[in-house]
Amino acid sequence: MDSGATLTAVAAPTVTVRDQYNNLVPSTNVTFTVATGAGTVNGGAAATVQTDGSGVATVSWVLGPLVGANTLSVTAGAAPAEVFTAYALLGYQNGWDASIKTGTAGARMVPDLQVILVDQTGAGVNGVQISFHITQGGGSVVNAPPPSQTFASRNSGGSGTAGVTNVVSWWLGPSPGANEVEASVTYLPSGRTITLKFKATGS
Questions:
Q1: E-strand stretches of 37-136
Q2: What is the torsional sign of CA 190, 151, 122, 99?
Q3: d(C-alpha 117, C-alpha 24), whole Å
Q4: What pLDDT shows up at residue 187?
Q5: How far apart are CA 114 and CA 169, in angstroms?
Q6: What is the pTM of this model?
Q7: Predicted confidence (pLDDT) per residue in 14-62, tens digit
Q8: Which of 10, 134, 137, 159 would disulfide-bridge 150, Cβ 3.0–4.6 Å?
Q9: 135 to each of 13, 102, 141, how far by Cα in Å?
């Protein structure tokens, strides 16, 4: 079981194939299929890979666009399917996604930044601080520059909708090029930091 943000990669699912005598089986096909959550494996809805010399097969797994549970079914020959589960706990709101949006250098982006935080059942979680950091482009959040403000925080549920933060305004950097803001939260009880990125190109 793993957790992360929507449209981001989680730990690579890995299986080891053995025969009825518990011997490792190299060069056999293993199929990984997205069952729920609309994510991708190796860039598609399903991927078939061969085990290596140690009988191990692995793929990359990116969670889908909505918060909540994602599952992956894994089959090899006649063996029973194995299921991996991961949870997208931090997600985009207010029209944002993982794509790179376009804006004007030095100007405020539209729409404002906003995220949602949920638990493993998909229910909104309130009262958790979520940080927004400018990580590329030299812009500003909350306040129009100058001076630039590179950090802001919002509490989940602050918007009045369960798990959804208040918005954060974002001004792109003064020079044309790539801009990025990272939203992050340290989610208890695991203590793991979950992040997602807002990306824009200023022209």
A1: 40-41, 46-50, 56-58, 61-62, 68-75, 82-92, 100-103, 115-117, 129-136
A2: negative
A3: 41
A4: 72
A5: 9
A6: 0.88
A7: 999 999 999 999 999 999 999 999 999 999 999 999 999 999 999 999 9
A8: 134
A9: 29, 17, 11
